[in-house]
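Lab notebook, bench 4. The sequencing result for the construct came back, and we need a structural model before the next group meeting so we can plan mutations. Quick request posted to the team channel:

Model the 3D structure of this chain.
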Amino acid sequence: MTASGVQAEAIRIPVNSWTGQNTSAHIAGQLLEKLDYEVEYVTAGAVPQLAAMAQGTLHFQPEFWDNNVGDIYPKALAEGDIVLIGPQGLESREGWIYPPYMEEQCPGLPAYEALYECAQAFAAVDTFPNGRLITYPADWGTRSLDLVESLDLPFQAVAGGSEGAMVAELRSAVAAKQPMLMMFWAPHWLFAEYDFNWVEFDKVDGTCDEANQKRGNACGFNQANVGKLVNRDFEATWPGAFAMAEAFTMDSASQNKMILQVDQQGLAVEEAAAEWIAANEAVWTPWIEAGRAAKN
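Done. Here's the predicted structure in token form:
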């Protein structure tokens, strides 16, 4: 209810273009329905959703990645049009992954310095003697290519054709125990099905300055923070929903499993979310209790 005693509009949750966020959206939405709120799911891009939240046409984003969203996010946050209500819980990561068997051929791994000595272990016919690094598709940016050039690594960066093509190449390489080094991200269903290790870079204080790296002072990739956002009026309009949203969290292992169910096993996102809820009542019950206490 609003302050006037009139039932507020439905809580609108943005749905982005990747499965992991979709599972968070539907888990949060189904839990809000347990608190007797009406929920609507609205397809929205990662950047356009911020303007919609600032304008009040979207209300609650349970999984927001703060990288690659431009200047609109810090501006809207500073002006109070959207509110960050805490971390979401996912252990997000971007970087270079490889199958564990590659450590037999390159014993210095996971340290990136090992790649200078054993690049040939990662070589392909068309890159020899340089190693082969599969990067994101060309229209996703050139972060890996830039890092290879900055560090003067003896590798050739080869753009993947698409997420599907990258996944297919990873699976094929693992099945045949072939050389593989690829730029990738987590959470992703692959980590529920396969073991991969991450190349480790030099530790730095603060944010990684991707544009200014040299061998011996290489931080790799700036990592995203995953948080929860609400619009300016959310707490006043839906105090119970706000309390539930504050308490809501998600872990990477659970999301990896749900992404696998949806992307590889044909389960609908709504069904994967419902299964998680059915199996984790002890986890979410305190969130609902907090919502009920605030609502009453």
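The first strand starts at residue 11 and ends at 15.
Will bring this to the meeting.
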